[in-house]
From TrEMBL:
Protein's recorded name: HTH araC/xylS-type domain-containing protein
Lineage start: Bacteria, Pseudomonadati, Bacteroidota, Cytophagia, Cytophagales
Annotated GO MF terms: DNA-binding transcription factor activity; sequence-specific DNA binding
HTH araC/xylS-type domain sequence ranges: 172-270
InterPro entries per UniProt: AraC_XylS_family_regulators, ExsA-like_N, Homeodomain-like_sf, HTH_AraC
Matching SUPFAM superfamilies: Homeodomain-like
Record's keyword terms, sorted: DNA-binding, Transcription, Transcription regulation
Length: 275
Protein backbone atom coordinates (compact mmCIF):
# COMPACT_ATOMS: atom_id res chain seq x y z
CA UNK A 1 0.00 0.00 0.00
CA UNK A 2 1.41 3.39 -1.02
CA UNK A 3 1.31 6.15 1.57
CA UNK A 4 1.22 9.63 0.06
CA UNK A 5 1.68 12.73 2.20
CA UNK A 6 0.73 16.08 0.69
CA UNK A 7 3.42 18.27 2.23
CA UNK A 8 1.85 21.27 0.55
CA UNK A 9 -0.66 21.79 -2.28
CA UNK A 10 1.91 21.00 -5.02
CA UNK A 11 4.59 19.05 -3.11
CA UNK A 12 4.12 15.36 -2.25
CA UNK A 13 6.05 12.58 -0.56
CA UNK A 14 5.21 8.96 -1.41
CA UNK A 15 6.40 5.86 0.44
CA UNK A 16 5.74 2.13 0.11
CA UNK A 17 7.24 -1.12 1.36
CA UNK A 18 5.86 -3.17 -1.53
CA UNK A 19 5.81 -3.22 -5.32
CA UNK A 20 3.15 -0.98 -6.88
CA UNK A 21 1.64 -0.95 -10.36
CA UNK A 22 -0.09 2.40 -10.48
CA UNK A 23 -3.54 2.88 -12.00
CA UNK A 24 -2.74 6.60 -12.44
CA UNK A 25 -1.85 7.20 -16.08
CA UNK A 26 -1.85 10.97 -16.49
CA UNK A 27 -0.37 14.13 -14.95
CA UNK A 28 -2.17 17.38 -15.88
CA UNK A 29 0.83 19.48 -14.73
CA UNK A 30 4.60 19.33 -15.14
CA UNK A 31 6.11 17.08 -12.46
CA UNK A 32 9.66 17.33 -11.08
CA UNK A 33 10.66 14.43 -8.86
CA UNK A 34 13.49 12.56 -7.17
CA UNK A 35 13.68 8.88 -6.19
CA UNK A 36 14.95 8.80 -2.63
CA UNK A 37 15.05 4.99 -2.72
CA UNK A 38 13.59 2.15 -4.77
CA UNK A 39 12.79 2.38 -8.49
CA UNK A 40 10.05 3.81 -10.72
CA UNK A 41 9.52 2.70 -14.32
CA UNK A 42 7.42 4.86 -16.64
CA UNK A 43 6.07 3.20 -19.79
CA UNK A 44 4.88 5.40 -22.67
CA UNK A 45 4.15 4.90 -26.36
CA UNK A 46 7.54 6.52 -27.02
CA UNK A 47 9.54 4.22 -24.75
CA UNK A 48 10.44 3.47 -21.14
CA UNK A 49 12.01 5.81 -18.60
CA UNK A 50 13.55 4.33 -15.43
CA UNK A 51 14.29 6.24 -12.22
CA UNK A 52 16.61 4.52 -9.75
CA UNK A 53 17.70 5.81 -6.34
CA UNK A 54 18.95 9.38 -6.62
CA UNK A 55 17.45 9.94 -10.10
CA UNK A 56 15.80 13.29 -10.83
CA UNK A 57 13.27 13.59 -13.65
CA UNK A 58 11.11 16.33 -15.14
CA UNK A 59 7.93 15.04 -16.79
CA UNK A 60 5.94 17.24 -19.14
CA UNK A 61 2.24 17.79 -18.51
CA UNK A 62 -0.42 16.02 -20.58
CA UNK A 63 1.68 12.86 -20.94
CA UNK A 64 0.10 9.41 -20.87
CA UNK A 65 2.10 6.72 -19.11
CA UNK A 66 1.94 3.55 -17.04
CA UNK A 67 4.00 3.31 -13.89
CA UNK A 68 5.59 0.41 -12.02
CA UNK A 69 7.35 1.01 -8.70
CA UNK A 70 9.80 -1.57 -7.33
CA UNK A 71 11.72 -1.94 -4.09
CA UNK A 72 15.46 -1.29 -4.22
CA UNK A 73 17.98 -4.10 -4.95
CA UNK A 74 18.37 -4.79 -1.23
CA UNK A 75 14.73 -4.34 -0.32
CA UNK A 76 14.88 -0.59 0.19
CA UNK A 77 11.40 0.98 0.30
CA UNK A 78 9.97 3.01 -2.55
CA UNK A 79 10.23 6.68 -1.61
CA UNK A 80 10.03 9.81 -3.75
CA UNK A 81 9.34 13.52 -3.55
CA UNK A 82 7.36 15.18 -6.33
CA UNK A 83 6.85 18.87 -7.01
CA UNK A 84 4.12 19.84 -9.49
CA UNK A 85 4.68 23.02 -11.49
CA UNK A 86 1.12 24.17 -12.03
CA UNK A 87 0.11 26.52 -14.82
CA UNK A 88 -0.96 29.29 -12.43
CA UNK A 89 2.50 29.43 -10.82
CA UNK A 90 4.22 29.37 -14.21
CA UNK A 91 1.96 32.12 -15.60
CA UNK A 92 2.75 34.28 -12.55
CA UNK A 93 6.48 33.66 -12.97
CA UNK A 94 6.34 34.47 -16.71
CA UNK A 95 4.50 37.73 -16.02
CA UNK A 96 6.86 38.72 -13.21
CA UNK A 97 9.97 38.03 -15.30
CA UNK A 98 8.53 39.26 -18.62
CA UNK A 99 8.99 35.93 -20.39
CA UNK A 100 7.56 36.18 -23.89
CA UNK A 101 5.13 33.70 -25.45
CA UNK A 102 6.90 30.47 -26.38
CA UNK A 103 6.45 28.38 -29.51
CA UNK A 104 5.16 24.83 -29.23
CA UNK A 105 7.59 22.64 -27.29
CA UNK A 106 8.74 19.67 -29.35
CA UNK A 107 11.49 18.23 -27.17
CA UNK A 108 11.48 15.06 -25.04
CA UNK A 109 8.53 14.71 -22.63
CA UNK A 110 10.76 13.30 -19.89
CA UNK A 111 14.13 14.87 -19.10
CA UNK A 112 16.78 13.18 -16.93
CA UNK A 113 18.32 15.72 -14.54
CA UNK A 114 20.07 13.30 -12.20
CA UNK A 115 23.49 14.91 -12.71
CA UNK A 116 22.28 18.38 -11.72
CA UNK A 117 23.86 19.02 -8.30
CA UNK A 118 21.77 22.14 -7.72
CA UNK A 119 18.49 20.24 -8.12
CA UNK A 120 19.92 17.52 -5.86
CA UNK A 121 20.57 20.19 -3.24
CA UNK A 122 17.07 21.57 -3.79
CA UNK A 123 15.46 18.21 -3.00
CA UNK A 124 17.80 17.71 -0.03
CA UNK A 125 16.28 20.91 1.37
CA UNK A 126 12.79 19.37 1.15
CA UNK A 127 13.63 16.15 3.03
CA UNK A 128 13.30 17.66 6.55
CA UNK A 129 9.69 18.56 5.80
CA UNK A 130 8.74 14.88 5.43
CA UNK A 131 8.65 14.52 9.21
CA UNK A 132 7.65 18.14 9.79
CA UNK A 133 5.03 18.90 7.09
CA UNK A 134 3.50 21.70 9.17
CA UNK A 135 6.70 23.67 8.62
CA UNK A 136 6.16 23.71 4.87
CA UNK A 137 3.77 26.64 4.78
CA UNK A 138 2.14 28.04 1.65
CA UNK A 139 4.69 30.87 1.59
CA UNK A 140 7.62 28.47 1.87
CA UNK A 141 6.15 26.22 -0.84
CA UNK A 142 5.71 29.24 -3.12
CA UNK A 143 9.37 30.17 -2.64
CA UNK A 144 10.43 26.56 -3.25
CA UNK A 145 8.39 26.43 -6.45
CA UNK A 146 10.05 29.60 -7.73
CA UNK A 147 13.44 28.18 -6.77
CA UNK A 148 12.74 25.02 -8.79
CA UNK A 149 11.75 27.10 -11.82
CA UNK A 150 14.94 29.17 -11.51
CA UNK A 151 17.13 26.07 -11.27
CA UNK A 152 15.47 24.50 -14.31
CA UNK A 153 15.95 27.64 -16.38
CA UNK A 154 19.65 27.62 -15.40
CA UNK A 155 19.92 23.97 -16.46
CA UNK A 156 19.57 24.63 -20.19
CA UNK A 157 17.86 26.60 -22.95
CA UNK A 158 15.23 23.95 -23.67
CA UNK A 159 13.54 24.45 -20.28
CA UNK A 160 12.09 27.87 -21.10
CA UNK A 161 10.13 26.32 -23.95
CA UNK A 162 9.31 23.27 -21.82
CA UNK A 163 7.86 25.28 -18.94
CA UNK A 164 6.31 28.28 -20.67
CA UNK A 165 4.59 26.72 -23.67
CA UNK A 166 1.07 27.41 -22.41
CA UNK A 167 -0.72 26.14 -25.50
CA UNK A 168 -3.42 23.58 -24.85
CA UNK A 169 -3.85 20.48 -27.05
CA UNK A 170 -5.54 21.33 -30.35
CA UNK A 171 -8.31 19.33 -31.99
CA UNK A 172 -6.71 16.21 -33.43
CA UNK A 173 -7.69 12.99 -35.24
CA UNK A 174 -9.92 11.31 -32.67
CA UNK A 175 -9.94 7.83 -34.24
CA UNK A 176 -6.16 7.56 -34.50
CA UNK A 177 -5.63 8.92 -30.99
CA UNK A 178 -8.12 6.62 -29.28
CA UNK A 179 -6.90 3.51 -31.09
CA UNK A 180 -3.37 4.38 -29.98
CA UNK A 181 -4.17 5.25 -26.37
CA UNK A 182 -7.27 3.32 -25.26
CA UNK A 183 -5.28 1.25 -22.74
CA UNK A 184 -4.54 4.27 -20.55
CA UNK A 185 -6.91 4.43 -17.59
CA UNK A 186 -7.86 8.10 -17.48
CA UNK A 187 -11.22 9.91 -17.15
CA UNK A 188 -13.16 10.84 -20.29
CA UNK A 189 -12.57 14.48 -19.40
CA UNK A 190 -8.83 13.89 -19.77
CA UNK A 191 -9.28 12.15 -23.14
CA UNK A 192 -11.39 15.12 -24.22
CA UNK A 193 -8.71 17.63 -23.18
CA UNK A 194 -5.90 15.67 -24.81
CA UNK A 195 -7.78 15.57 -28.12
CA UNK A 196 -8.53 19.31 -28.00
CA UNK A 197 -12.23 19.08 -27.18
CA UNK A 198 -14.71 19.92 -24.47
CA UNK A 199 -16.28 16.86 -22.84
CA UNK A 200 -19.59 17.36 -24.66
CA UNK A 201 -17.86 17.79 -28.04
CA UNK A 202 -15.69 14.75 -27.36
CA UNK A 203 -18.73 12.58 -26.64
CA UNK A 204 -20.60 13.90 -29.68
CA UNK A 205 -17.63 13.42 -32.05
CA UNK A 206 -16.88 10.00 -30.57
CA UNK A 207 -20.44 8.68 -30.94
CA UNK A 208 -20.63 9.94 -34.52
CA UNK A 209 -17.30 8.30 -35.40
CA UNK A 210 -17.57 4.96 -33.56
CA UNK A 211 -21.38 4.65 -33.43
CA UNK A 212 -21.29 3.86 -29.71
CA UNK A 213 -20.48 5.64 -26.47
CA UNK A 214 -16.88 6.16 -25.32
CA UNK A 215 -17.50 4.01 -22.22
CA UNK A 216 -18.77 1.02 -24.22
CA UNK A 217 -16.08 1.33 -26.88
CA UNK A 218 -13.25 1.56 -24.33
CA UNK A 219 -14.44 -1.51 -22.44
CA UNK A 220 -14.86 -3.55 -25.64
CA UNK A 221 -11.46 -2.50 -26.98
CA UNK A 222 -9.73 -3.31 -23.69
CA UNK A 223 -11.45 -6.70 -23.39
CA UNK A 224 -10.52 -7.63 -26.95
CA UNK A 225 -6.89 -6.76 -26.25
CA UNK A 226 -7.03 -8.78 -23.02
CA UNK A 227 -8.39 -11.80 -24.91
CA UNK A 228 -5.51 -11.55 -27.36
CA UNK A 229 -2.87 -11.25 -24.62
CA UNK A 230 -4.26 -14.24 -22.72
CA UNK A 231 -5.00 -16.53 -25.67
CA UNK A 232 -2.03 -15.68 -27.91
CA UNK A 233 0.65 -14.38 -25.54
CA UNK A 234 -0.33 -16.81 -22.73
CA UNK A 235 -0.37 -14.12 -20.05
CA UNK A 236 -2.26 -14.52 -16.79
CA UNK A 237 -5.36 -12.39 -16.13
CA UNK A 238 -3.53 -10.83 -13.17
CA UNK A 239 -0.84 -9.65 -15.60
CA UNK A 240 -3.32 -8.32 -18.13
CA UNK A 241 -6.08 -6.34 -16.44
CA UNK A 242 -3.99 -3.30 -15.52
CA UNK A 243 -2.12 -3.47 -18.81
CA UNK A 244 -5.31 -2.96 -20.82
CA UNK A 245 -6.78 -0.25 -18.60
CA UNK A 246 -8.94 -1.89 -15.91
CA UNK A 247 -8.65 -0.74 -12.30
CA UNK A 248 -9.28 -4.02 -10.48
CA UNK A 249 -9.18 -7.72 -11.25
CA UNK A 250 -12.71 -8.60 -10.09
CA UNK A 251 -14.34 -6.02 -12.40
CA UNK A 252 -12.16 -7.19 -15.27
CA UNK A 253 -13.01 -10.87 -14.66
CA UNK A 254 -16.76 -10.24 -14.54
CA UNK A 255 -16.68 -8.08 -17.69
CA UNK A 256 -14.54 -10.63 -19.53
CA UNK A 257 -16.93 -13.47 -18.69
CA UNK A 258 -19.98 -11.46 -19.80
CA UNK A 259 -18.43 -10.62 -23.17
CA UNK A 260 -16.76 -13.92 -24.11
CA UNK A 261 -18.76 -16.47 -22.09
CA UNK A 262 -15.61 -17.90 -20.53
CA UNK A 263 -13.61 -17.05 -17.43
CA UNK A 264 -10.32 -15.33 -18.18
CA UNK A 265 -8.53 -17.85 -15.95
CA UNK A 266 -10.06 -20.76 -17.91
CA UNK A 267 -8.95 -19.20 -21.19
CA UNK A 268 -5.45 -18.84 -19.78
CA UNK A 269 -5.38 -22.51 -18.78
CA UNK A 270 -6.68 -23.55 -22.19
CA UNK A 271 -4.12 -21.42 -24.04
CA UNK A 272 -1.29 -22.79 -21.86
CA UNK A 273 -2.27 -26.39 -22.67
CA UNK A 274 -2.15 -25.62 -26.39
CA UNK A 275 1.49 -24.52 -26.31
Amino acid sequence: MENTIRLQHNIMYSHSDQKIRSTEHYFPEHALGIMLSGESQYFTNEGTFVMNQGAICLMRRHQLFKKLKNLGPHGEPIALISLFLDQESLHEYATEHKIVKQSTYKGPPMVNLSENVFLKGFFDSLVPYINNPQKLTVNVATLKTKEAIELLLQAGDLFQGFLFDFQEPYKIDLEAYMNHNYQYNIPLMSFAKLTGRSLSTFKRDFTKLFETTPEKWLQQKRLEQAYYLISQKHLRPSEVYLEVGFENLSHFSASFNRKFGINASDLQTKSSLSI
